[in-house]
Each structure stands twice: as C-alpha cells, then as structure tokens.
Amino acid sequence: MAANYVFKEINDEEYKNKCVIAPAPKEAKTFYSPFEPPYSDVKHLFYNFFIPYVQPYEYTGWRDEQLSWEKTVYLHAGLSCSPYYRFQGPDATKFMMKHCTCTFENFPVGTGKHAITCNEEGIITSHGMLFRLDENTYDTYFMLSLAAYYKEEAADYDMEMTDLTGKKFLFQIGGPRSLELLEKVTKEDLHDVKFMTFRNTSINGKTVRIARMGMAGTLAYELHGDTEDSYELYDLIYRAGEEFGIRRLGWHSYMMEHTICGYPQTSYHFACDIPGFPDNTGNVSGSVGRETAGYTDPYSLGWGFCVKFDHDFVGREALEKMKANRKRKMVSLVWNHDDILKVYASQFTDNPYAPIDEPNDLAKDYRVAIHQDKVLDADGNMIGVNSGRMMSLYYHEMISQCQLDLAFCEEGTEVYVLWGEPGTNQIKIRATVARFPYYNENPNNKLDVETIPRYNK
C-alpha cells in the first residue's frame, strides 16, 4: 500500500533526524523538495546545498530500490531541480553549433540528443540533454556551460535564453514495466514514442512532455511538466504503479544506476570544468589524491560517438588530436570478492583499511564532489582512474567504471584498484576488466516495444 504524505516545512526533529548526509546547517530554513511529496515512510533524507532543498536519500532502502530498473519499474524526481534553460531565436542553432560537439545535420524537431561542451583543451565543461522544440527553439538540461557562454556572447546572437530552473519537474520512469505504467496513467497508446524522441500527452488533465530516454539501461522515459502539478502527478504515478511493483528511487540508489547502466555522471564519476565555477582541484577523495580535479574528455568516457567533426565548435582541434591519439576508454571493473573481504576483516585490527561498508562512494561531505581511485598494473604503474563503485544485488558483484589505458582494456584483464587515501593504510584490490555498460539486457535504443502489450487495448 502506498504511504500517505503530508505537506510541511522540514523544520522538526523527526525529519532533521533522517538527514544522513550533508545535514542542514542549524541556521538554514530547510524546505522539502517541491517535486517529490514528503511521504511519511521516507527512510533517509539529505540536504542539497546547491538547491537548497531537503531531498529523499532513500525511500525504502537501497537494497529494495535497486532491483527496480532490472525487474519492475521505478520513479525518480531527484533531477527536477537541475539547471534548465530554453534558447530561442533565429540564431539559436548557430549558437548551439558553436559550443556543442554533437551533429546538427540529423536533428529533427521532436528529438533529443546527448549534448557535450568542451573548452579549447577538449576538457568537458558540461553535458546533458538537448531537445529541439522547433527550428529555432531548444530546451537544455544540466548545461550550465551554455548559460555561461550566452551571458558572455548574447550581443553576438539574435536569440534569448530563459531560465526555467525550478519551474518544471523532471520525472524519470524506468524499468521493463515503465511503458505499461505510463500507458495506464495517460490512458493513451505510447508505443509510437521512439528512442530519443518526445511528444506531449496528459495525465489527469495536466499536459506533460514524454521522452523515451533515461538512465535505466533498458526501457526508460522522462516526464516534464509544471512544478505546481508535481506532487499530484508523482503520487498518482506512484499509486498506479503498485500493480507493477514500482519503487521510488532516492538519490543513493539513483547514482548507483549510473554506474551499472553505463552512464558516467558529473559530480559522481568525473567533474566538469564549468565556466565561472571554482577550480575543482582538491575536491576529489580517494587514492588519486586531493591534488587532482577529476576533469576528463569525451573519449575517455566512451562518448566519442557524441563528437562529430561536421561543424566548427569550441575544442574541435584538441578533440581531433585526442581521437587520433586516444589513450583511454571507459570499461567496467568487477572487484575481487576475497580482496573486498580483506578490507572488511581489517576493521577488526589496529591498522584497518578505509571502510568499504557503504554500497557505493556517494560523497558524504558536500564539499567533496567525487571519489576516484588509481588503477594500477601488476608493476604498480598507474593505468587508469576508477569511480562510481557500487554493489549490485542483481549480479552479486562490486562493479565500477574505469577510464583505462587502451593496452589493458581487453575483457578478462586483471588490474588493481588502489583503495585508501594517500598517507593511509592502502590495499591493492584485484579487479577484472568487463563489458561496458555492465548491465546490457534489452538496451533502450534497441528494444522493440511491440513485444510489450498495450495497456489500454
């Protein structure tokens, strides 16, 4: 049975005691996220300093939530507060082409693309989604770099930028039962919505945009709508999803999904060198050391397919050289069980290794954005950067993503993850190079939805 929820400001001890990471400062006036109803059964919360709102960290626990993207269906609203900008005007495409690495040759209205911007050195400054609403209008999500570039270059373009951050919700509905759930709540046949396309539909009389995309690694969709409708529609979808085994994802489980499903994410696997933001050096935990920044390039993340040299864009020259002299690519690593157990066993000694109790390395301190570890060869040479460690209940494995030197990328190769901060008791954990993405069953871009029954037939 779906839990009830209450509307209230989060200023009482009951809710503050549920904040497990980055607890709200005593002087803060903390409000619950306007995008996710404050259900009474939420297990853990966290205070997001960058919003600032209190958001669900876990609803029913990461173990219960995690299997939803492989077996049933999930609902997640944690990205609703992310940067959302609309660019509109005769020069909107010209502006996008100057900064985005993706092609615009095959970009019809009603479709979306994964957009990346880079600096002149080819280092990623932002990445996110780009939706083409009409010939001269684009919606962008998470593209802080484009907003910064526009503020510097506005006089050069006949167009306008509108900041819609916080005015629209973004719900992610993913998993093998997601299409059936969405057809139930929209009372409409949605089998026509192809991968990376979108159109409008309605739920309970409220207009929403549905797009077939997501982080599930399998069938997944996004819903975009007005913030004032978010509580009502979230709750309606959640209750309608009971027959499909729906789970609400908190931030904890959601970030694990990025690792196993093959979607590197900023502020978790790597950092973006966002224009106007402080340098990220010193803001990385793990064995790589605090002198690193976590910046990287599209090829090291496996995003070379998002770089097309059919137009001039910032960073093109550097990326052309990187493509010709590629050094690393993204792989999955599967960690050795015996070595993991050594880390646990060390906790009962006077000289323990860094704890590995948590199922992933989500930063507990908002001032430390990401966790990265060195990856070594048998001789102790650094050959890669590991991030996003997570425990998979589906595969019964510890899995991570790794930007690895090309010479070591063959599946089955054994490498070593250096576990522990510099200057502490460190251990080399054996890991095996594996497929990327690791979860590769019925990927969204290849899944034939005609194999799924129509809910409203």
Automatic annotation (TrEMBL):
Gene3D superfamilies to which the protein is assigned, alphabetical: Probable tRNA modification gtpase trme, domain 1 (3.30.1360.120)
Domain of life: Bacteria
Location of the GCVT N-terminal domain: 80-255
Residues binding substrate, per UniProt: E222
Cited SUPFAM superfamilies: Folate-binding domain (SSF103025)
A Pfam family: GCV_T
Family matches, as InterPro entries: GcvT/YgfZ/DmdA, GCVT_N, TrmE/GcvT-like
Stated name of the protein: Glycine cleavage T-protein
Organism annotation: Marvinbryantia formatexigens DSM 14469
